[in-house]
Structure formats: C-alpha cells, structure tokens
Amino acid sequence: MDATFMTALHICHVRHLKDIEIPLSTEKRKMLILTGKNGSGKTSVLEALEAFLEYVVSEEYQIRERCRARLQFYWEN
User: Fold this and answer.
1) 5: which of 23, 29, 30, 43 fits an S-S bond (Cβ 3.0–4.6 Å)?
2) Is 3 inside any structural domain?
C-alpha cells in the first residue's frame, strides 16, 4: 500500500496570510512544526487546513471527484 501524504501547503488567502507556500517532503512523511509569535498565523493555518480536509472527506468532494474522473475518461477516449 502506498503512503498518501501532503507534499506542500499553499495558502491563497486566509485572514492576514496571503500567497504562502509551505514546502514539505516529497519522498516520505515527515512532521511539520509551526512556530511563531502570537498573532503570526499558526492557528489560521491549522483552521484552514482543517476546513480543507473536512471538505475533502465530505460527500460533496467525493461526488465532484467522481464526475471529474468520468469527464477525464470521456475526453481521453
């Protein structure tokens, strides 16, 4: 079984954070530790990640991905 893990975080705009790229390992799972002063955005990053992951596991996302796969198959064939 292949390991599934995130290789980067890109934040377009969350609260005061704009166009932030957080590169992660592309070869294996590693820990990410967020440090910074109060008000620097640590909690904002985690809340945005939580919202995204909730969307990914939601039925709405799964339906959209199935449709996307079907459309991709249609266009390739």
Assistant:
1) 29
2) no
